[in-house]
Amino acid sequence: MPWWLSLFGFQQSQRRRAILMLLFSTAIFCCMVAAVAMQLVTFCDPDSLGGFGNEVILTMGICSAACILQLNIRRPGQQSVVQATSEMFMDNVMLPEYVDLWLERSRRSRSEVAFLWFLAVAAEIAVVVWTSDELDPGQAVIHLAVFATVATAYCSVALYLLLVCSAQAAMVDHYSTTFADLSQDYNVLRHRWDQIQAILRRSAQCVAPCLLMLTITPVIVVVTGTIELILDNEADFQRILVKLVPKGFGLLGILRVLARVGEVTGNCDRLPVFLNSSLLGSGFDQEASHLIHFIERSKAGFYAFDAKVDYTVMSKVAYVFSGGLLTLLAKAVQL
Q1: Distances in whole angstroms, Cα of residue 325 to Cα of each of 119, 237, 239, 241
Q2: Residues whose CB falls within 8 Å of the CB of residue 275, separated by 6 or more in sequence, listed in order
Q3: Exposure letters 183-218 (e unless 16+ CB within 10 A, then b)
Q4: Which residues cross the membrane (predicted)?
Q5: Which pLDDT tens digit goes with each residue over 30-75?
Q6: 303 pairs with which residues across the strands?
Q7: How many other CB atoms are found less than 10 A from the CB of residue 234?
Q8: 307 bridge partner residues
Q9: Which residue, 291, 295, 313, is CA-closest to 303?
Q10: Where residue 26 falls among pLDDT bands split at 50, 70, 90?
Q11: Is 326 within 8 Å of 318 (Cβ atoms)?
């Protein structure tokens, strides 16, 4: 397994995984606490950089810190979320079957998140340079360090959720590709599907609170920001909109997570249709028909708080986020 996956707890060696994950989470959390504390200090300072941008950074920082705690906190006698999900996906029996598909998706997700993080930090640097006449260099450096820390934590949590969803999608895809090879052994296929849907349900249940916190972050930012700016007639909308752009790149990561969640549910919903089409021309097979009906009735997918999450959730969050930005843009153009 790639070394960088061990930073997120995905490592077959339990001892090594625990040490690496503890160090990584502790470092991220300490940086987050420092960054949030600095934001609280400068929150009400009229001479500080950002204004509304500081509110966005503070919101992202608090949500990221809460997610890191939720993923790593361990109750007495129970495993943490990271430990539980890693144990499910790193199973020595099932892992070799889908590991190639998982690693392919994981590398793509890592590149996407790294690109969004780079755009966010680069855009924030550009904004600071643009407003450098209002700041001293020390304050600008501190602001950039705080933003980079918050963006790193937020993107790291988003990447973890992408890795979990990538493993889920890889398991479903591998099941569909191996159906033809094991089409005569329907007991094995049914047992495998029982295992897969159990893993889907349990892993989704583990990360559901973290997904909820990340999802409401852009909604809170856009809704409260729009209300505040509409009520404040003296606000500099052009400047505020420019300062919101770098944070928007970071917040786009949750839309990618929701898209991957929708992919998991969509793959499960389309699986019976795919299996039916693979049996065309081979005559009626009663056992295969029973298996397909069993898969269809299982209603497998990504469930968060007993609600099935699909592409419609991503579209609703995207509508709110886009609508708020368009409102700010329209207000800025009018001035």
Answers
A1: 18, 11, 14, 8
A2: 176, 179, 288, 291, 292, 295
A3: beebeebeebbebbbebbbebbbbbbbbbebbbebb
A4: 20-40, 52-71, 113-130, 142-163, 210-231
A5: 665 665 565 555 545 544 555 556 777 777 888 888 888 888 887 7
A6: 308
A7: 4
A8: 304
A9: 313
A10: low
A11: no
Give yes or no for a contact between 168 and 200, defined as CB atoms under 8 angstroms apart.
yes
Q: What average pLDDT score do residues 182-198 get?
A: 80
Kindly give, in sequence order, each residue whose CB lies less than 8 Å from that of residue 307, ignoring residues fewer than 6 positions away: none
CA distances (Å), origin 110, targets 159, 277, 288: 7, 34, 38
Alpha carbons 66 and 68: distance in angstroms, whole number: 6
Query: Domain range holding 99?
Result: 3-334
DSSP for residue 76:
T
* CA nearest to 321, candidates 229, 215, 242: 215
**Burial (0-12, 13-18, 19+ Cβ within 10 Å), 335:** exposed
Question: What CA–CA distance (Å, rounded) separates 76 from 69?
Answer: 15
DSSP secondary structure letters along 234-286: T--HHHHHHHHHHHHHHHHHHHHHHHHHHHHHHHHHHHHHHHHHHTTTS---H
Does this model's pTM top 0.70? My answer is yes
User: Would you state the structure tokens that stand for residue 296, as one six-digit string?
Assistant: 């269809």
| CB-count exposure of residue 91 (10 Å: 0-12, 13-18, 19+) | middle
What the block records as the tokens of 246 is 């770098």
Between CA 181 and CA 164 the distance in angstroms is 27
Secondary structure of residue 63 in the 3-state scheme: helix
Number of domains in the chain: 1
Residue with tokens 């599907």, as numbered in its chain: 193
Listed residue (145, 157, 162) closest to 57, CA to CA? 145
List, in order, residues 6 or more apart from 60 with CB less than 8 Å away.
Answer: 150, 151, 154, 217, 221, 247, 250, 251
Upper half-sphere CA count for residue 314 (Cβ side, 13 Å): 17
- The answer to whether 328 and 266 have CB atoms below 8 angstroms apart is no
